[in-house]
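Sanity check. The docking grid for zinc ion depends on where the pocket ends up, so I'm generating a full predicted complex first rather than guessing from homology. Inputs follow.
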Amino acid sequence: MKNHKIYPVQKSEEEWKTKLDSNSFQILRKKGTEYPFTGKYNDHFEEGTYKCRGCGASLYDSSSKFDSSCGWPSYDASIKGALEFIRDTTHDMLRTEIVCSNCGDIKDMSSKMDQQQQENVIV
Ligand SMILES: [Zn+2]
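Predicted complex below; grid placement will be based on this.
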């Protein structure tokens, strides 16, 4: 599914390529996936706020981060309004794409959602 929403932060593909390193560009803009246990913030549990690499918007408070042992940073809640949950039914699967609501950077693909997140789903 192509996301046609207009986000407050708008950049062309070329501008994103300039702003992000090539690995981040693939992950944030092209639905690439970081290898598990390789991310800088996987084992990071300091107090603070996790921000979008693309636009700097605050996404998660450190109090919501937990050790899921899955290899990627995990949070049980996002900062209110920081993320959008977009239903993706391509490849004959029902998944949810989690994106920054300020710039549209992709944060996660999930096959399940909790009740609160479902209320925010954009179809
Ligand atoms: Zn962003």
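Relevant for the grid: Residues 22-29 form the longest helix (8 residues).
Also worth noting: The helical segments are 13-19, 22-29, 115-118.
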